Amino acid sequence: QLSVQKRMIEQKNALFKKEEGFDPKLLFAYNEKLASCFAKICLFRRGYVNEISKYVGETISQISGGTETAKIEYKCGIPAEFAGFEAVKSEYIRLLGENMKREAAAKMCLVGTQRDDLLFMVSDRDARQFASQGQQRSIAIALKLAEGDMVRRERGESPVFLLDDVLGELDEARRAYILSKMGERQLIVTACERGEYAKRHSVSMIEVCGGRYRQI
């Protein structure tokens, strides 16, 4: 659906930019198809974000020793009370109609799921504004772990997590969680220094230097 959306938005934008002006009937046809595409994407994203938010919340609670909560909110132009496909599609059609003049003036599509965003909350506060660097790093880690857990649940296969310099800006408790409480997850972590990794007996270390590597 994302590729379909991208192609249709490009076609709609091109329609706005025609020197002779655009055909209103053709614009209505684009909006009808776009509304259907937007509705499918919106509903899928809602379900996915609601599910992955649970995983992220659980991981943040574990990483912080139960002192912090976290959740992800899906921000789009359609209120949550519009639940079914037809209801969401109709609302998109209404929004596209209301914004037709504004879009024509801007010569681009201003309504749709291409403008959606995610809001990350830590202990009920916007993480972008109030979270520390350590908390933001923890959310990024929790999100990746959550994605992997969902892949494992859906496909029955455990992914390998590739993390780059993941311990930076984390306190001792968060570092200990990453290094020793990953359960069955398999992690490959890169770092410039041995540091905390050398203290963990369960960690296999490989040193890479000058294009050569050796286990240490």
Task: Describe this protein's structure.
Strand 6 and strand 7 form a beta hairpin. The chain is an alpha+beta fold and 216 residues long.
How is this structure best summarized?
By secondary structure, the chain is an alpha+beta fold. The protein has helices at 2-16, 24-63, 85-98, 100-106, 127-130, 133-155, 172-180; strands at residues 70-75, 117-122, 125-126, 160-164, 186-190, 206-209, 212-215.
Give keywords.
alpha+beta; three-stranded antiparallel sheet
Given the C-alpha coordinates, what overall shape results? elongated
Main sheet record: 3 strands, antiparallel
Count the DSSP helices: 7
What portion of residues belong to β-strands? Answer: 5-15%
Q: Which SSEs are present, and which pair or pack?
A:
Layout: H1 2-16, H2 24-63, E1 70-75, H3 85-98, H4 100-106, E2 117-122, E3 125-126, H5 127-130, H6 133-155, E4 160-164, H7 172-180, E5 186-190, E6 206-209, E7 212-215
Parallel strand pairs: 4-5
Antiparallel strand pairs: 1-2, 2-3, 6-7
Helix pairs in contact: 1-2, 2-3, 2-6
